[in-house]
Amino acid sequence: MTTIRLVQGDITQQSADAIVNAANSSLYGGGGVDGAIHRGGGPAILEACRALRASHYGKGLPTGQAVATTAGDLDATWVIHTVGPVWSSTEDRSEQLASCYRESLRVADELGARTVAFPAISTGVFRWPMDDAARIAVETVRNTPTAVEEVRFVLFDDRAYEAFVRQLG
Q1: Active site amino acids
Q2: In the chain, how many domains are there?
Q3: Element containing residue 38 per DSSP (H, E)
Q4: I want to staple 82 with a disulfide (CB 3.0 to 4.6 A). Which of 25, 28, 66, 163 is the partner?
Q5: pLDDT tens digits for range 114-133
């Protein structure tokens, strides 16, 4: 059984086997969590992402998929990059968001990771409503078979933390 924990803070300060990056499809870093992970992990992460783009992911990482790289200077072994969907008021993309969590756990299992730290995927510049994102994240992690022993949702502010607290009930 996977233990789910909530932490309010900076995901780049977490000690875990794997830290999940809410990446953009280019894998080259960006704003928010993505930029913070690239800055915190140093050039090794960008170098690994460039290698992925030069081989399997020439057109970028598709939404809902996940891939791992080194964690560079972070206190983790791996960074699992996943591309969340942009929220839409006219199209239900919740399955794509759920896929980010499922695919990240699948990659974590392939790596043998026992502790995984997730951000609230798609809630920043991709504008997913926090309460709905928290619901999808918690339900998906609870319902995905995995050997991961601890999933830690690392939430940047009070609003995100409280939304996840409500979902864990």
Answers
A1: 34
A2: 1
A3: helix 32-41
A4: 66
A5: 999 999 999 999 999 999 99
